[in-house]
UniProtKB/TrEMBL annotation:
Its main location: membrane. The keyword Glycosyltransferase does not apply. Keywords: Cell membrane, Cobalamin biosynthesis, Membrane, Transmembrane, Transmembrane helix. Pathway: Cofactor biosynthesis; adenosylcobalamin biosynthesis. InterPro entries: Cobalamin_biosynth_CobD/CbiB. This is Adenosylcobinamide-phosphate synthase. The chain crosses the membrane at residues 12-29, 65-86, 164-181, 202-225, 295-314.
């Protein structure tokens, strides 16, 4: 037992992982105070300056250059800072803490579920508005249920599973850059007309980063009850969603709990036709609580499996 503890302690990457999870559990970053909020606002200001071309090709070029202008200098700075830090594990811990976020998602879900349960649509819309890009005002009780479920699924998938996956590959810097890429894609989402096609390069970059972790997590969700039906629906429906990683995960959760997800959404007053995913049950408060429970247990399993794999790879236990 003592040997196992000593090996765990000597494995800096694994120690940082569990340290970040513990610190985040005790002292999570408030959403309003997170550096990603400032990053998001700066991205919108930059887009106002450079997203001025009417030509499709020129807009794509502008979006690519703007993305590089945001990502490359930040990546260069954080890499240059690493050798200057007296304790590398603390450096990794700081950036992983900045990247990971499930407590704010838990807080949102609890408040949102309570608002839906008492049919307080205005409060539910207020909770959703700062998190999603779609227009919340026209949402019905059914629309709120779908939007809340999709937000919960993608928040856990990206802000926890995706962050931990890229931490295992590239350390704290990789996890942090991935999180900033997500915020950049959200700020310039081409689902809003003013960022189409300017935001396509940012979305494509995130789609590449999401491909492996979200699909692996979707497979973990599928395992168990209704596994055959879930795999069948993933095969049938995932091609109709524009992003392959999120497609698998949303379909997997929807099929697992037989929830109706996807469908039309309104962005900046314009209706966008989206494929319908999952099952036929309209999500309500109790279903969102079920989604949270399902994903929480799967995330716990993900963390344990990743910890074992990191121990084997880095330490050879």
């Amino acid at each position: 037992m003592e040997d196992i503890f000593n090996q765990f302690y000597s494995n800096g990457a694994l120690l940082v992982l569990w340290g970040a999870l513990l610190f985040h559990l005790i002292l999570p970053f408030p959403r309003e105070a997170h550096p990603a909020i400032m990053w998001h606002k700066f991205a919108e200001l930059l887009a106002d300056k450079v997203n001025t071309n009417n030509s499709y090709q020129q807009s794509i070029i502008s979006g690519t250059l703007a993305w590089m202008l945001m990502i490359i200098p930040m990546l260069t700075v954080v890499i240059a800072l690493k050798p200057l830090v007296w304790q590398p594990q603390l450096f990794e811990l700081a950036f992983l803490l900045l990247a990971i976020d499930w407590r704010n998602t838990d807080k949102f879900t609890n408040q949102f579920t309570a608002a839906l349960a008492r049919e307080d649509k205005e409060h539910a819309k207020m909770l959703l508005k700062p998190i999603i890009n779609r227009t919340t005002q026209p949402l019905s009780q059914l629309g709120l249920g779908k939007a809340g479920a999709e937000t919960l699924i993608m928040s856990y998938g990206r802000n926890v599973v995706g962050v931990l996956f890229w931490y295992a590959i590239f350390g704290g810097i990789g996890a942090f850059i991935y999180r900033m890429m997500i915020e950049l894609a959200r700020a310039w989402s081409p689902s809003r007309q003013r960022f189409s096609p300017f935001g396509i390069p940012a979305i494509r970059a995130v789609a590449i980063m999401d491909y492996v972790p979200l699909r692996l997590f979707a497979l973990m969700v599928a395992i168990g009850h209704r596994a055959q039906a879930v795999f069948s629906l993933i095969k049938q429906q995932s091609h109709s969603w524009p992003l392959p990683g999120p497609a698998w995960l949303i379909v997997a959760v929807g099929a697992k709990l037989e929830l109706s997800l996807g469908g039309p959404a309104i962005y900046d007053g314009k209706k966008s036709e989206r494929a319908k995913l999952g099952g036929r049950i309209a999500p309500s408060a109790i279903h969102i609580a079920q989604v949270q429970k399902l994903l929480a247990w799967r995330m716990f399993a993900w963390i344990l499996i990743q910890s074992v794999l990191m121990a084997i790879i880095y330490q050879g236990i």
